[in-house]
Amino acid sequence: MQELLAYVVLGLGPGAVNALLGLGLVTIYRGSGVLNFGHAAVAMYVAFVFRTIRQEWEWPTPVALVLALVVAALLGLLIHLLVMHPLRHAPTLARVTGSLGVLLTLSSLAYWQFGSGTFTVNPLTPTTPVTIFGVRVGWDRILLVVVAVALTAVVWLVYQRTLFGLATRGAAESEKGAAVTGYSQARLAAINWMIGSVLAGVGGILITPIARLNALQLSLLIAPALAAALLGRFENLWMVFAGGMLLGVGETVIGKYLNGVRGLTATLPFLLIVLVLVLKGSSLPQRGELIYANMPLAPPVRRTGVKVAVFAAVSVVLLYVLPSSYSAAYSIALIGGVVILSLVVIVGWVGQISLCQIAFAGIGAYATVRVANHLSIGFPFSILLGALVAVPVGALVGLPALRVRGVNLAVVTLGAGIAFERMVFNNPTFTGGEQGSAVPRGAELFGIDLDGRTQPARFGIVILIFLCLCVLLVANLRRSETGRRMLAVRADETAAAASGINVAKVKLQAFALSAFIAALAGGLMAYRAGRVSEAGFVVFQSINFFSLAYIGGIATIGGALAGTLLAPGAPGSLWLRNAIGSDQVSQTLSGVGLVATVITQPDGVANIVRNEREKRRLKAAKASHAAAAASASAADSSQAGRT
Amino acid sequence: MTTGLSAVEVTVRYGANTAVDAVSLEVVPGQIVGLIGPNGAGKTSFIDAITGLTPMASGRVLLDGTDITTWPAHRRAAIGVRRTFQALRLFDDLTVSENLIVAAESSRRFGFLRDLIRPRQPSVAIDRTLELTGLVDLADALPRDLPAGTRRLVGVARGVVSNPSVLLLDEPAAGLDTHETEELGHVLQRLAETGVGMLLVEHDTDLVFRVSTQVVAIDFGVMIASGPSAEVRQSPAVVAAYLGLPLDGED
């Protein structure tokens, strides 16, 4: 009992931070209708600022605290003004993408500015623990819980008792609601963004002395925070608090008693998210808001054969002509292209936001190795069989998509990505450890040595063939009956169902195909490197590829593929690293580029030219329509004159 | 066995509110039935229930004698119950002809896998529907580039392209001017001649009484009159509930 209590106490700190982050998420959501995926990244960045001022510059702690929280408020304001306000009438996909851009930008900026390591933060409280009911409790945890309770109470009171709170609640019901109280919607949103970001900053500052400071790990606290906010239905602040505490305590307690399954605790937020969302249907209260903009343009595919042939020819030349570092980088880009194609199917054409594509790739990679090792099936069938393993997994991840949509699905798939990363890829039971993750023999076909390590250019051609085949499949799909159904589902699920389209089937097919394609990429990665390394399948990679595809044009094959040149390790980022000397530059650029794209070119860079041409064509067409209508009505009236 | 659509005591509730209260009606092939009622009378809820987009509290829906009460929306559509939407809800990324094709195609066995290897050219006939609705010249246009009146016609065309047994029209004349409304009336009559049964929900009562053979009137979810057009038009209950009021048919 005493021991259990000790673990409960251990979970209080993380629990309180979940609660604080959840509280901020709810504040921002209710104030502006935005679900900020970069919320925990704000907490992380503020924690870094605080640490730098306090420990590097050695300024007094209260000053550091005030300055860091001012930075938090400014950060919130900036995100609102620069990113989310311009996107206020954009479709969900664009808004989710915008906040993912914030996440990417902040985490890579922190890497760049402060370093990629894990940093210790000097404790804020006396280090001697107190003993309560026979359990030793650190002051830092007591402080966290007290602050979390106090801030929840304050925010709750503000929303209940002040005109500002009333206006925010009104705004959450409908865009017009706020106007009645005399507050402008834009100002309300801005203030709530600042409050929410300060709450995140407080959480970040208080947790890092306990949990230490790492840019990526802290940014991923978004998952439990989302779970906590969902438990409170983005409305009931005390439920959010309770949910956050429950998650924190649950993780440590489960971690204690189920030590055998590594990473199980990390799946807790995911399971909760799925449970809440799927069982209760759409859990985010819908705001009565207006959407003017369209989904990214999905133009018809034309002359695919010719384009693929040209692309293949150029690629072969590049693989042999480029210096070896760039040739290798080009191979990596080609594999990234396969991942991106999987996104074109699921996000581009069916409009389902999936943030766990890299998890499918990881499953494909490990399954390929397993198939090769245990069934003695060699290249290339091992890759195909391995990819088939991902199909049911893809369908499984797609199941929640039958109940939840839009931003909720993004939450589910992000949770799934994190769960896979922690529970499957970091778990030797699944991965087979060091031993099990090596490909038994390099690729070989008809006696030609295609080993990815010794014959990189030849294996590059193998990758190219896989990529081109996938392009042809996906292009075929766009032209087909199934493709039309997918776009119909993307445009309007209700109208699709009323037109005889089985929406559930279309979604599951898309998830299954998308998982298959991503898993092919995983198998190729395994053969290219000769082994699988779990480091490649972190959820951040999923977000990265999502953003690259979006920048290029996620609903166009060519555009999305172009995005892969900036993938980590691909020629674009290699060149940037050589030119600027930092690995994080290309990451930061892709974050900023994502935000810029989603605001200025929501159809993706690939469609800029097409859109311009379309505009001119439309103008001409309208002019000729008008002329035709004029002559028709003239004919009408002359006829009327005769009768 | 009756042919066409039979709705038997269809009831829809939202919480404690009864939006549609035991409304029964029949639509036989080739017939246009009007459904009128003031704002909030439950007309759209009725269509939603028939097409499976909102759950029914009680009642039954039959098509050509087959009980489809528990079928999901897409199966009802596939067997021949189609509708249009007041808000149109066209597929914005597809051209006008693709909007029609996707609504007419029925899925094949393993069609998904076959589409990956060999995409099927559209095999459904849409030309006749394009002709009947006057959209031939606009087949390759994107709906978002068309004027509102034409978009309404695309919605109707998408509804009838699969030769449904019955088409439920939700305010097809909303936002149309007098001339366009008249043209729509002709289109509906031409379509009825091809054998499609139609349920016409419409605020523009002139249009309803002009093209419908039967009219059903509801108010607060309850049926207040039903019968041939001319009779319903004179019915005191309808005049009191609806026609007697100054008409604001434009909203």
Question: With helices defined by DSSP (H or I, 4 residues minimum), what is the helix count of chain A?
Answer: 28
Distance N terminus to C terminus of chain A?
99 Å
Low-confidence stretches of chain B: 246-251
Computed Rg of chain A: 26 Å
Largest sheet, strands/sense/barrel of chain B = 6 strands, mixed
| Mean pLDDT value of chain A | 82
Quick one: how many beta strands of chain A? 4
As a percent range, the share of helical residues of chain A equals over 70%
Could you give a short account of the major beta sheet of chain A? 2 strands, antiparallel
Read across the widest sheet of chain A, the strand sequence of neighbours is 1-2
| Alpha-carbon Rg of chain B, integer | 18 Å
Shape of chain B: globular
Question: Overview of this structure, please?
Answer:
The complex is a heterodimer of chains A (643) and B (251). With 643 residues, chain A is mostly helical. Chain A has helices spanning 2-32, 39-56, 61-84, 92-114, 139-161, 163-173, 175-180, 185-211, 215-219, 222-231, 237-257, 268-279, 304-321, 324-349, 357-374, 381-398, 407-425, 428-431, 433-436, 456-479, 481-491, 493-498, 503-529, 539-552, 557-563, 571-580, 584-600, 607-642; strands at residues 130-132, 135-137, 444-445, 448-449. In chain A, strand 1 (130-132) and strand 2 (135-137) form a beta hairpin. In chain A, helix 2 runs parallel beside helix 4 and helix 14 packs across helix 25 (557-563). Mean pLDDT of chain A is 82; it is low at 638-643. Chain B is of the alpha/beta class. Chain B has 10 helices and 10 strands. The radius of gyration of chain B is 18 Å and the shape is globular. Classes of the chains: A mainly alpha (643), B alpha/beta (251). Chain A binds chain B through residues 294-295, 297-298, 473, 476-477, 479-485, 487-488, 490-492, 494-503, 505, 509, 513, 618, 621, and chain B through 51-53, 72-74, 77-78, 82-83, 85, 89-94, 98, 101-103, 105-108, 111-112, 115-120, 122, 144-145, 158, 162.
